[in-house]
Structures are given as structure tokens and as C-alpha cells.
Amino acid sequence: MSETIAASSWADHARSVLAHAGHQRGGARDAVIDVLAEQSCALSALEIEERLRGVRRTVGRASVYRAIELLQSHGLILRLDLGDATSRFEIVDPAGGHHHHLVCDSCGSLVPFDDADLERSIDRLSRRLGFSAKGHEVVLRGDCAACRN
Length: 149
Fold this sequence. Notes:
The chain is α+β, with helices and mostly antiparallel strands. The protein has six helices and six strands, in the order ααβααββββαβα. The strands form two sheets. It has a three-stranded antiparallel sheet with strand order 1-3-2. Strands 5-4-6 form a three-stranded mixed sheet, with no helix packed on it. The longest helix has 14 residues, at 7-20. The two termini are 29 Å apart.
């Protein structure tokens, strides 16, 4: 995200949205929210499960997937498909901030980046084409510095 929101802010926002939709709090869902809130970029469901295991939280895989599905259905997280057959999920900033991604084809690393000039170029292109863009994703693929060496 161009202006990363505070982890507790997004987590509070997510819990509020779910509560207003009539969902009661749950331990597994809260744990998934906490893991996602602490990340600067996208995680796969398995990575979320591993992080939960790393903090001694026992959350079943099915619970992780149910939490992801619920968060996604309420527009709280985005699903990213970066061409490697692994879906990743990242939080949606309620203020509209976002970032883009660099993906290393060799090691699979995922690096978020912001670029104000790129955003201005996308806005100019949209206006020139008479297109009202509601969102966009930019994914640059190649080899990271470590894999090039």
C-alpha cells in the first residue's frame, strides 16, 4: 500500500465490518486477521497457517480457508494470482492505498513496491482512453538481484 495503514487499524476495521454484517468473533478468524494485519504484502493460505503455527496458535487449515473466504467476501482482502498457481491474499486499505508487486521467476520472492510516477501514468492513460478505472494491478516478473548473481 502506498501509505501503509497501522496493523491494529485494519484489524479493528475488519472486525467492525464483520460485526456489522452479523458475524460473531471467532478465535481462528481473529488469529487470521491478526496475521494479515501484520504483513506488508500478500500471503498464501499455507503461509498464514505456518505463521499461526509459529506463534503457537493451533488453527486448522479449513478454518484458515473459511476466514479467508469470509474476509474476501466482505472486500477486506484481495486475492492475488501471480501466475505461479498459488493464490495469495493481502489486506485492502479502507482509505484506498495500495502497492504493486515484483515477482522473482527463479526463487519466487514477492516484493511490494510503490511508485507515484507509475500511478500518475496509469491515471493519464485511463483519461486518454476515456476509461474509468476502478482499480489496477501491476506485476513485474523477472529475476531478483540475488538470483541474478
